[in-house]
Amino acid sequence: MLPSPALSGRKRGHGGLHLHPSSLRQRSRITNLGVVLLVSFLCFSLLFNLRQWLSASDDHHYHIPAISHNTDSHEADQNSILLSTNEPVKAKRLIIVAGHAIWKGCLPEKRLDDEDWERGQTRESSVSSEGESYLRLAIESNLFHNGFLPFERATSEDYAMDSYQNLLFSIARYHELTGAYPENITVIGYEMKRRRFEELHLPALRWPKDRFKYIGIDEQGDTTMQYKGENENAFLPFSKDIYGCHDLLLAKRRHRNPSRRFHPYHISAPELTGLLNWCPGYQAGYNAIYPGHLPW
C-alpha cells in the first residue's frame, strides 16, 4: 500500500485545502529571522570594507582637492590659458613684416630663387603660413644673431586674411607675447600699399599717426601694373568697406580660409573684442568708425 499523504490527517473543506493558523505563523517567524540575519551580515560587511578603504586612503594620502569657484567665466577661461604660458616678453615697438608667399627652401643663401617660394596658407594647396616661413628663414639665416636659434622677441601671426587683419591681428599677437600693447608700430611692405595702411587701416583702428611708421619697398622694374592692381583691387574696395566685412572683401577672406581657421584673440586680447567684432552696416555706409574704448 502507498503511504498516506502528509496532509491526510488534516480536514478538508469544500473548495480546497485548509491549514492550521499556527503553522503559518511559525513559517513567518523563520523567514523574518533569516532576513534579520542577512541584513545584519550585510551591514557588518559594509562597515568593515568602509573602514578598510578609509584606512588605505589615509596611508596613501589621498585627498580631494579644494575647488575655487569663479563667477566670471570669461576671467576663469583667460586665467587658465595664462597659466600655461611663459613670462611675457619685454618690448615697446611692434615691427610687422607682411608676408606674401611661403619659403620652402633649405638653403638661406638661395632665398632669392623663385623656385623656393610658393603660395601661402590663404591658398587651398598650402597648410603653412607666410609668417611662419619668414620666421624660419630668418632663424636659418641667423638674422637675429642668436646662433641659429629661435629669438624670443620674434614670432609669427598666422590668422590674418588681408592687410587690415595683418595690422589688427599683429597687435593682438603682440599682446599675447608681451602682455601689453605696443607703443609704436612699424610696418615693412610694398610701397604701393602705403596709402592703404596710412589712409584706411590706421583710421579704422584709430591708431595715432605719430606712432606709426611705414617702410615701403618696391620691386625692381616697371611697377605700373602693380600700382593699378593695388588701387582697383584693394585701396578702392577698402575705401568703401573700411573694415573689410562686406561683399567683395568678405568673399576674399572666406576664399582665403579654406581650412575654416579661427583666431584666439577674443580671449588673449579681450580689450579688442569690440573692435574684432565691429562691422558697420549699410546705413552707416560700411565706414562708421568703431566708437568703443581702445587700449591705445
Automatic annotation (TrEMBL):
GO terms for cellular component: cytoplasm. Residues 1-21 are annotated as: Disordered. This is Uncharacterized protein. It comes from Clathrus columnatus.
